[in-house]
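Quick start: read one record
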Amino acid sequence: MHRKVNRAHGTLVPLIAAAALLATSTGGRGDEEEAWIDLFNGEDLAGWHNPYPRGEARVVEGIIELVADRKFFLATDKVFGDFELEAEIKLPPGKANSGILFRAQKREDGSMFGYQAECDGSDRKWSGGLYDEGRRGWIHPQKPLENPYNAEHWTAERREAMRRDDWNRFRIRCRGDHIEIWVNGVKTTDLRDATDSKGHIAIQHHGEKGQVYRFRNIRIREIAVTR
């Protein structure tokens, strides 16, 4: 399902901070948040699958490790609509890029596309931004690197939220068309986009040969939206 992104004069409209804080703290009037469920049990890859003909996923001491020489995603079997997700990512040293797909779609050949919470290991420092994998590209922040939108909305606090050589905790919350992303407790994305209402969760290996991407403590709680 594809719908128009909310924009004003060509830029996405971030929500008013106070309203965003209220929505985060209450979950929305009438919403019911389910109990947290571990998407990764720490022992094996039950509940996950690799839709690609490449890439290796393995469990080592309670951590999912992804190894590949081309980009691939390891995806949940189940699809999710409204939810709150938490996960930790550790990038390898050197050139590296990863992220978490959510409400992700899958083509007939198995390739995945859709919303991605970015984990950016480069000097650009766009971790926690919203990327539309395999479709529209960057939604927030926006290319080029320097532009009026980024000057206003991609603040120094957001740029510095990720710890490059350490574990980083990502939090993603989707309720209707409201998408929020946090990195290590810093809210980096807060906007509305109604392109996809449900889909898979997936974790990424960007394709750098010999690099090992690590993920742990992946859990989710679904939100039953009542109106």
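The CA atoms of residues 63 and 216 lie 5 Å apart.
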